[in-house]
Amino acid sequence: MKKLISALILSLLICTSCYDDGDKPVADIKAFAFYETTDNPGIKKPDIDAKVFYYYKIYPDDFSGYIYEKDGVFIKDNLPDIKPDEEYRIGENGSVSFIPEYMNGSATIVIESKYYEGQIASTCFSSTKNGAGFHKTFKFE
Fold first, then answer.
1. What is the CATH number of the domain that holds 91?
2. Mean pLDDT comparison of 1-15, 20-34, 122-136, highest-scoring range
3. Domain residue limits at 123
4. Do β-strands 86-89 and 79-82 pair in parallel, antiparallel, or remain unpaired?
5. How far apart are CA 111 and CA 137, in angstroms?
6. CA–CA distance, 40 with 22 (Å, rounded to integer)
7. Model confidence at 61: pLDDT above 80
8. Is the overall model pTM greater than 0.85, yes or no?
9. How many Cβ atoms sit within 10 Å of the Cβ of residue 108?
10. Are 80 and 139 in contact (CB under 8 A)?
């Protein structure tokens, strides 16, 4: 009986030591940015080099009263600037895929158009640990 219990404990130790939470696939975040022109409405072109900013634990209400400056920075009188935690660029296919350093908790994503300078779009997620996606088509305003 003592040998059976020892064997069970040994097998339990072996099984638990082999478990690695890092074996789970990590879900990524995908951002898509396109633009349309007034000459060709309905024709979407990749907004190559548009900037994608990732803000960790920033909620939509946190941006209240702030003004977008550029390069992901939001400013407000007498308050600290809101700056992105990470930055990425849209590729030739109109997308970028990334795995941010921080994925637990809320996140905000802002895309700054390269084609239509000064235009931005944003979205937020309560959590990105299971992946996320954001698609924006910029148009002439």
1. 2.60.40.10
2. 122-136
3. 27-138
4. unpaired
5. 10
6. 47
7. yes
8. no
9. 21
10. no
Distance of alpha carbon 105 from alpha carbon 71, whole angstroms:
23
Q: Dig out the tokens for 45 from the structure.
A: 């072109």
Tokens for 80, please give them.
Answer: 């600290």
Strands 51-56, 107-112: pairing is antiparallel
Residue 6 within a domain: no
**Among 61, 57, 77, residue whose Cα is nearest residue 69:** 77
Coil, helix or strand for 6?
A: helix
- The pLDDT, as a whole number, for residue 85 is 96
Strand ranges in the chain using DSSP code E only, listed in sequence order: 29-35, 45-46, 51-56, 67-70, 73-76, 79-82, 86-89, 95-98, 107-112, 120-125, 132-138
Q: Is residue 12 part of a domain?
A: no
Q: Which two tokens stand for residue 56?
A: 């960790």
Query: What is the token pair recorded at 72?
Result: 């992901």
